[in-house]
Each structure stands twice: as C-alpha cells, then as structure tokens.
Amino acid sequence: MIFGLIVAALYALVFFTGDKSPTPKLGIDLQGGTRVTLTARTPDGSKPSQDSLRRAQEIIETRVNGLGVSGSEVVIDGDNLVITVPGDDSSQARTLGQTARLYIRPVQSSAVSSNAKAQAPQAETPAPAPAPQNRPFPAQEPGTPAPPSETPAPPADQGAASTEDQAAAEIAEAKKTRQSTDPAVQQQAMATLDCNASDPLQGNDDPALPLVACSTDGTTVYLLGPSIIDGQEIADATSAFNSQQSRNEVSLTFKSSGSTTWAQFTAANIGKQAAFTLDSKVVSAPVVQGATPAGSATSITGDFTSASAKELANTLKYGSLPLSFQASEAETVSATLGLASLEAGLIAGAIGLVLVLLYCLIYYRMLGVLTALSLVLSGVMVYAIMVLLGRYIGFTLDLAGIAGLIIGIGMTADSFVVYFERIKDEIREGRSFRSAVPRGWARAKRTILSGNAVSFIAAAVLYVLAVGQVRGFAFTLGLTTILDVIVVFLVTHPLVHLASKSDFWSKPSINGLGAVQQVARERKTAASARTSVGAQAKEA
What we know:
Blueprint: H1 2-16, H2 28-31, E1 33-41, H3 50-66, E2 73-77, E3 80-86, H4 91-96, E4 102-112, H5 163-178, H6 183-192, E5 211-214, E6 220-224, E7 229-230, E8 234-242, E9 247-254, H7 256-268, E10 274-278, E11 281-284, E12 298-300, H8 306-317, E13 324-327, E14 331-333, H9 339-364, H10 367-392, H11 399-428, H12 433-465, H13 469-500, H14 508-511, H15 514-539
Antiparallel strand pairs: 1-3, 1-13, 1-14, 2-3, 4-6, 4-7, 4-10, 5-6, 8-9, 9-12, 10-11
Helix pairs in contact: 1-10, 9-10, 9-11, 10-13, 11-12, 11-13, 11-15, 12-13
Membrane topology: Multi-pass membrane protein
Function: Part of the Sec protein translocase complex. Interacts with the SecYEG preprotein conducting channel. SecDF uses the proton motive force (PMF) to complete protein translocation after the ATP-dependent function of SecA.
InterPro entries: SecD, SecD/SecF_arch_bac, SecD/SecF_CS, SecD_1st, SecD_SecF_C, SecD_SecF_C_bact, SecDF_P1_head
C-alpha cells in the first residue's frame, strides 16, 4: 500500500509538473550537446598561466557540481577552456564560464542609457533579449563593429597585433574613459557608453577606481565609486523567492570583515544607492533603507527568474574565476556513443533481468514470480526518479549511469536470495512455511541492511572522489542501493508474508520448498531414531 502511494506520487509529479515530459535527460555520450570555447583575456594581453587555467577549470567544475550531476565536461585546450553541456541550450555553458567578479560600489549618479529608447523598435537586433535572466553575458554578439566580441583572426599583415594585444588595448582604452577620476571624462563616458555593445572591460575593471557601467538590461548607465567590498568576502549565497515582494532574490552572507564593512556603509548611507556589480555590469542598485547589522544577510534584487537567481547564487558561492573569458559562438557536438550504445546498454540490462528471473523461477519456483514482480516495480520506480532528477536537478543519464542501474538489478536479486535462503534454513529446522517466513525475515533483514550499507558507502566514497562520468555511475549505484532496501521492505517481504498464509502458496510443489521439507523430515526421523536407541540403551 505504502509503495503504491509512493509510485503514484512519483508519476503524478512526472505527468503533472514541470514540462510534463516522461523521458529522462540523456548525457553527452548518448544525445550530444553544446560546446562553448572560452578564450582567456588578461588585462595586459599576456598569455594566461596554466595554473590560472587549471584553477578556473576547478572552479567551473565546482559550479557544475553545485548544480547537480549534470554530465557537463570542462577541459583545457591550449590557452582556452572548452565547456560542453548536454542538450542544445548554450546559456548553461556561458553561465558556468562567467568570471563572476562581484564588487559592491556606491552609486554617485545614474542616467537613462542613450540607446535605451532606440532599443524597442530594433526588432532585428535582439542583443539585450536575455535581460530577464540578469546574467553577466546579456549578449555575445557585437553591437557595433568597433569593439569585436567574437573577434575574428587578425589579418596576416597585422601579425604583431595579436588577439591578445588587441584585447589589452581595448581594456586599456575602456579604463581611460570609464574608470577616469576626471568628472568631465566620467560624464562623457556616461553619455557615450553603448550598453548594447559587448563590454571589453568585462571582469577587468579596477576596484580601486570609479566605474561607469551599464545595468544588465542595458537601460541605465551608472557612475560608481570605488569598491567597498569584493566577492572574496562572500561566505555563502542562496536564492529564494520573496513572497512578500513577489520576486526572486539572491541572499548573500559576508565573512566577518566584509560584514563589518557593509554594516558601517549602510549606517552611513541611508537613502543612497549601493550597486552590486558582476563582471563590470550592475546587477542590482537598491536604495539603502536602513543600517544592516553585522552578520546579517543581504539580498541582491533584480528582474530575476527562479533559474537565473539560482545560477547567480551558485556562481557567487564558489568564487570568481582568476581570469576573464570571452565566449565563442555555441556549436553542436554529436553524441560520442550514440543511441546504438544506449540500445545496447538497455538490451544488456534486459538480458540480465531475464537471466535473473529464469534462475529464480527454476530454483525458487513460484517464489520467483514474487521476485519478478518486485524487480518490475523497482524498475518502474527507478524510471520515474530518473525523469524527475533530470527535470529538477539537471541529472543526465549516460552509459556509465546505465551500468550502475544494471548492477543494481543484481544487488536487488542478492537481497531476494538472502531472504529466501533464510526461510529455507528455518524450514530445515522443522518449521512450516508459515512460521519460517517471520523468523527468516528477522534474520535476513539484518544481513540485507548490512550488505546494502556497505554498497552505499562504497558508492558514496566513489562519488566524492571520482570525476566525470564515474560520478554518474556512483550516483545511480547508490540510488539503486537505497531503492533495493525500499523494495525488499515494502514489496517483497509483504508479498512473501501473504503467500505464507495462503494454502495454495504453501504447497511444496508451488513454492519449490519440497526438497527442503524432505530434509527436515529426514532430520526429524533421524533424531527420533537416536532418541529411541538412547532410551533402549538406558533400559538395558
């Protein structure tokens, strides 16, 4: 009854929540994915060090882990990082690769962007379209020919002016105007800054200098003072929906020094704005309503969706990248193994299941039918869980994960064998099928729990220590271990218990326990004979 309610609840979630698609998400090796190449940009145009690239790779992989087992890949290719994510959505790869350099700066003045009014009728240039997502990559397309975002290879006659030199020149030029301490230059920068164009200063602004920056939606230009707090002072970041304000927010908790600085700033600047800048763009610029006590959380507000708020919190939680990157156009990656491998894996699993069922039917007779029913119900539950995990935490099922599920079939069968053998042990001691079931279960459940505990610990250790697809294998192995316990306790044992009370199932020709009962009778006869002989010897 309980198991049936669990399965019904799972499939209600599958068919009536989210996108309502009853198919699990597949990994890169089975369905292909989207690849984005991140080209490192240093302020002086020098070549990035391998240590910086490795650190950036580790941070991005940590961000991937923070989103769940998503099956993404992050590899170093020369001076670039290549991020591949399952499916055809390139926004996830771009989000994972954002520099995420957060600074909190006081707002000195603000103005409507010079191109904000012209933004609406430009139906053919959807550069600021991702504004509701509030990402530091609002557009990867160049707004004007001057600042190249997707920089093509320089002409051959400009070999000295490499891409790195051009990037360094663009950053230096942007700093001269947008980070000038001259008020006249600052006002000129505010009037001429194109918020629709790609930002050469992205993630490379100097926190000790003022900054002229756009809002993420490109409608407002801000003149900001030097940074008072940087992202290294963030202790934790979470996303939540504020039901009172009806908006998604990102809540920040600062470390001790950052918390003290923020408390002092808010106390001295009530009624003024403070801008949260991420990669040289203003994510939020709220008005300080009152002093924030040291140790209290602070919220970043904006036009966030639930997904974008979660992505921003995840990015800030695991730290900023040591380098800023320029993302290339997304490209489609074909499946490395393909559907043929998926079909082969499913066939292998089906063959394994059939062999297990045949063994149980031959050796345990009709008790094997209970085994089959338990395995089928276990598979029904596993499928629903795979769909829901893909929908809500981004879990993708790859070939390694399928291997973990197949191994789980054998582990579940092991639990049945342990249970049935304990019943047979009780029957050998002379008990009936009905009385052997509860006694056998009392002995078997301890063994089943111990065995599954060892398997789960092994899967957990493997998940923590492994990387890449091995983590998917460990995840599904641990999941099937937990489901094995649920199925044995909520399905197999109740069915066997009901069968023991049935006259039909108690027949030796049906339950396959006739040979064991014969052994019990022979032992009983032998014991009686020994008792009789002993009694006669005493009389003599």
